[in-house]
Specification:
By secondary structure, the protein is of the alpha+beta class. It folds into two domains: about 5-80, no CATH class; about 90-185, Pab87 octamerisation domain (Lipocalin, Beta Barrel). Helix content is about 30%, strand content about 30%. The chain is built from three helices and ten strands, in the order ββαααββββββββ. It has helices at about 25-50, 55-80, 90-95; strands at about 5, 10, 100, 115-120, 125-130, 135-140, 145-150, 155-165, 170-175, 180-185. A hairpin with a 2-residue loop joins strand 7 and strand 8 (about 155-165). The longest helix has 27 residues, at about 55-80. The radius of gyration is 43 Å and the shape is elongated. The chain starts with a strand and ends with a strand.
């Protein structure tokens, strides 16, 4: 095997430490050859140490089967959970509105003494105050979603609201204005 000078390309004999043509050191070439040989040995060792494709494929299939089983077991576990609370029907929710209510914070009418009468006719609740300042028609659409068409001191409005009962209060929440207010039952 012939050795060539990396500097000028002259053919050299094996074991020469310097190029006879240009004087370049040949020590670098032998160390580069050693590195190449070491790299080739390392690559062969790495390929021998790698698991074969069959084992990797088998492991991947086993992992997928286990994940599928866990998914279906988890799905059936949560499917069997029955909620403890039943949702209110429209009739139950609208029934909560019926009666005489007043606004202790005067947020709705600006008057703490005004009493609002809520009367239900099928799936519609009509609310009117005794002084004629306020009128509302509340109709359900969906789970605890209600449309309120209101007339407050001659100004009409239409908005979506939710309400819930809290002790002796009815708490309303407007999704449009992100505001809430409450009424208290007038006994």
């Amino acid at each position: 095997m012939s050795i060539y000078c990396p500097n000028c390309g002259a053919i050299l004999t094996k074991g020469t430490k310097f190029c006879t043509n240009c004087g370049a050191s040949m020590q670098v070439i032998s160390s580069e050859n050693d590195v190449k040989k070491n790299n080739e040995v390392n690559l062969v060792e790495e390929s021998l140490n790698q698991p074969n494709k069959g084992k990797r494929l088998l492991i991947a299939l086993l992992v997928m089967v286990v994940l599928t089983i866990v998914f279906f077991i988890g799905k059936s576990f949560f499917k069997d959970v029955v909620p403890t609370e039943k949702p209110f029907s429209v009739e139950e929710q609208l029934g909560k509105l019926e009666g005489k209510w007043y606004d202790p914070t005067d947020a709705v009418l600006g008057d703490k003494d005004v009493i609002i009468n809520f009367n239900r006719k099928e799936d519609v609740v009509i609310a009117k105050d005794e002084k004629g300042l306020f009128e509302a028609k509340i109709t359900p659409f969906g789970a605890n979603n209600y449309q309120a068409i209101t007339k407050l001191q001659g100004v009409e409005g239409d908005f979506e609201l939710h309400f819930y009962e809290e002790e002796d209060k009815l708490v309303f929440f407007s999704t449009l204005t992100k505001s809430s207010w409450y009424l208290i039952k007038n006994n």
